[in-house]
Amino acid sequence: MALTPENSDDGSNGGDTTSDDLIFEIEIDNLAPREEDENLAPIPPRQIPELLITRTVALVRRCHYPRLSLISRAFFRVISSPVLYRRRLQLGVTEPVLYALIGFPYSYERFSRCHILNLNISESLREVPTFPPIYPGSSVVTFGYNMYVIGGLNGFNHPVSTVFVLDCRFHAWDNLSRMHRARYRPAAAVIDRKIYVIGGCERHHAYDGWIEVFDVEKRTWSTVPDPSHYISNMPGGGFVTSVVMQDRIYILDALCALVYEPRQGTWQSLGLESSTLMDFWRDPCCVIEDRLYSFDVLCVLKHPIVVFDPVEMVWNPVKGLDDGLPYLRYSVCQMANVGGKLMVLATSNTIYNDTWCIEITLERREGGEIWGTVDSKDIVLISGTSPSIDLSCSVTV
């Protein structure tokens, strides 16, 4: 796996663990010597000890790394080394970074491409050219600094069993061992350092590998016997979407909602409660602090964004956003949890096809009401044709 930092800007929305006094750039050519240092010989960048570079660069925001890697070979080696990211983790200065899968249905390219959002730097979505194209219908989960891309559709009615991992530290990628079965639109989730993949293929019996588990540390797949009788109602055995709440996998099917408890290997059908959950659960959605956020497109609850409490099994509106959201196509957008904030990516409901990013801070007030505050709303992608936003997710680096 080649670990080559890019020369294009990389970034994030900034973690709340770093303060402004730690956010700085090293500009060797522009350092003005103090009067008492005029007689001291400058230290060439190539002679700075790598340990000192590591300790210093670890405090710098990651979006500046591409330029810092050009200072000298020593800087390049440090920024290309996992040691630097272990140091950042020890210092508690890791940052959540937003990635999105963007496709253009009316172009010759039928695959989506991975883009990174450089908030507070260039405020634009930029393609990550070193990442491979993503098959439609793939499921993507994140664990630490990695994104795992699972299955998908390669051509008409041809699901694949391929899995690859994207290393978001260095924008490198590697193939993993294949699943036992090819899958299209499977449910996927990370629990206890294991990736559970459910469905996305026709089911025949309890031991046909309908559920597979990937051990992140051992990098091996195993199948899980499932004596239940749940079968997806969607063509091909796929699902609409899935999320994790309370260490359980909530799965949205075309006609019902299911809950899988991986530790016990048990299923639960929500019964009459399923209709309540499905009132507003759509794709897009995301989970923040064990609560499910989705769009109320018709504003039935008189607010555009709603939140589901899995304990009380009830939907409530997110208040305070009525005047802060632009006029967008919320039915074809994506949501993501970025460092505890709600991020919305959507195209404008105009002829210009601009893609916006809305950053929302959430607050739980007395009485249990959830209020949102729009921190920023910016155009992050301008394109001639209408893009499809297939996925957005956050990775910590």
From TrEMBL:
InterPro entries: F-box/kelch-repeat_ARATH, Kelch-typ_b-propeller, Kelch_1, Kelch_FKB95. Coiled coil: none annotated. Residues 1-20 are annotated as: Disordered. SMART domains: Kelch (SM00612). Residues 122-381 form the FKB95-like N-terminal Kelch domain. PANTHER family: F-BOX DOMAIN-CONTAINING PROTEIN (PTHR24414:SF65), F-BOX/KELCH-REPEAT PROTEIN SKIP4 (PTHR24414). This is F-box/kelch-repeat protein At2g29780. It comes from Camelina sativa (False flax).
